[in-house]
């Protein structure tokens, strides 16, 4: 892309603001945090779909969004090595 082409500045749309509010409520309701709670973190939670990924899908029925490996929520459950679910390929 040529450097002299100026792109228009993007602004949030109403649906972006609505989604941001929904996610804020989800974070409050789930006590969803962007940092671990001691050793408890999404990466070692039963509901973290791909433990080898830095960002993965949380399939807990109350969450169901992409989360970071070091996030934490109140529904954290320990994951035994043999219990790790694997994503369909």
Which keywords apply here?
89 residues; alpha+beta; 7% strand
Secondary-structure element order, N to C:
HEE
- Strand share of the residues? 5-15%
Radius of gyration: 17 Å
Structural class: alpha+beta
**Oligomeric state of the chains in view:** single chain
Uncertain residue segments? none
Alpha-carbon distance between the two ends: 35 Å
Per DSSP, the total helix count is 1
Average residue-wise pLDDT: 88
Strand order of the largest sheet: 1-2
> What percent of residues adopt helix (DSSP H or I)?
10-25%
Largest sheet: 2 strands, antiparallel
Number of strands: 2
Q: Would you kindly provide a written description of the structure presented here, covering whatever features stand out?
A:
The protein is an alpha+beta fold and 89 residues long. It has a domain at 34-79. Helix content is 18%, strand content 7%. The protein contains one helix and two strands. It has one helix at residues 14-29; strands spanning 55-57, 66-68. Strands 1-2 form a two-stranded antiparallel ribbon. The radius of gyration is 17 Å and the shape is elongated. The mean pLDDT is 88.
């Amino acid at each position: 892309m040529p450097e002299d082409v100026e792109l228009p500045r993007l602004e949030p749309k109403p649906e972006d603001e609505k989604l941001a509010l929904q996610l804020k409520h989800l974070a409050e309701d789930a006590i969803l945090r962007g940092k671990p709670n001691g050793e408890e973190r999404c990466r070692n939670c039963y509901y973290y779909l791909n433990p080898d990924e830095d960002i993965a899908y949380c399939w807990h029925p109350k969450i169901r969004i992409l989360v970071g490996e070091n996030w934490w929520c109140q529904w954290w459950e320990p994951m035994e090595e043999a219990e790790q679910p694997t994503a369909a390929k």
